[in-house]
Amino acid sequence: MSHPLNTPLGRFGIVTSSDGPDGCVASIPAGQMFNPLTGALTIAPLAMLVDHVGGLVNHRRRADGEWTLSSELSLEVRPDAVDVIAEAPDVPVAATSKPFGVKSDVALALCEFTHRDVTLATATVRSFYISAPGDLAEFPDGPTGPLPPGTLSDRMAVRVAESGGAAKVLQQLADPVLNNSLGIVHGGVSAMALELVASAAINEGREDQPLRTASLRVNYIRQFVGSPESRYVGTALRVGRRSGIGEAQAIGPDGKAAIVARLTAYA
Hints:
Elements: H1 8-11, E1 15-20, E2 23-28, H2 44-59, E3 66-77, H3 81-87, E4 93-100, E5 106-115, E6 118-131, H4 152-156, E7 158-161, E8 168-172, H5 187-202, E9 212-220, E10 231-239, E11 243-251, E12 257-266
Domain Thioesterase: 183-250
Protein name: Phenylacetic acid degradation protein
InterPro entries: HotDog_dom_sf, Thioestr_dom
């Protein structure tokens, strides 16, 4: 099913074709999405899709009176994934997820991503179960307007910010369309942004031989909301001739890290 345009999933063109406790299938049109910090085609949309299909299969396993929150997300990507996508940019990336192991207070989902007949990535999403909040927002049944401008930064409501140093920074503006049912920034949107800033940080000055994201691990610590003070900050921990390690944080208006990520990349 196509999702309403005024929801996080609809904003990025995600289509869900199968949805249940035994598995989920969805796709995202990743071929025209570029990192606003580097101008390069990015695999960041896969992080949005990971959060959706992995989180959804965990969510469908909940008992009455339970709700789910993602606690961590892990993505492993083949090094030429962006090249595979660029060969047929109009073909969406498809993802399938299935439950792994028994459900307890937490659950784990396994995911696989393909583009045409090529396997691009594998991923996991771990969720934990809480008592269902009483103030969940209702998502609308249909679109309220046209698609926003097509750039990834516009869809994410992020703006490139000055860092005053080697860090790469994106400001996360408030946009209710990007919020989940708890009223906070959708976890997939934040995962995308963390990949964007971390990959940009390790690729500073490497336009001729970019390092390609190979793995991304995201840990969700506390709620993250969009505001003029909210931002994603990426820094390089180590950059060598053929590999690099970067880290990123989503920092809320209170100045505290709400989400953290570690990224590895190779030439």
